[in-house]
Amino acid sequence: MEKKKERIIIDPNILEGKPFVKGTRLTVKYIIGMRAQGWTEADILHLHPGITRADIRACFAYASVK
Fold first, then answer.
1. What is the mean pLDDT of the segment spanning 5-23?
2. Alpha-carbon distances of 53 from 19, 33, 37, rounded to whole Å
3. Which domains can be identified in the chain, with CATH numbers?
């Protein structure tokens, strides 16, 4: 859980307070939506080289708690 907190940020001054991957403007909803549309983890990493597998896992961990 602590790792998720290091990777997923919520700041009311950024992206209207939507949770996003630290160091990016990629929201948790966006990443989960890509997977729901059939994008593979490799596809997402190729399209967004600034994130890691751990970031994608943190998005799912965050969403599973909410």
1. 94
2. 17, 16, 18
3. 2-65 (1.10.10.10)
Residue 34's H or E segment, with its range, is: helix 28-36
Rounded Cα–Cα distance for residues 13 and 16 (Å)? 6
| pTM of the model as a whole | 0.88
Helix axes 53-65, 28-36, angle to 10 degrees: 100
Query: Residue 26 gets which letter from DSSP?
Result: -
Alpha carbon distance 38, 51 (integer Å): 18
Token pair 């961990």 is at which residue? 61
Q: Which amino acid is located at 38 in the chain?
A: G
Backbone phi, psi, residue 27, to 5°: -80, 160
Tell me, what amino acid is at 5? K
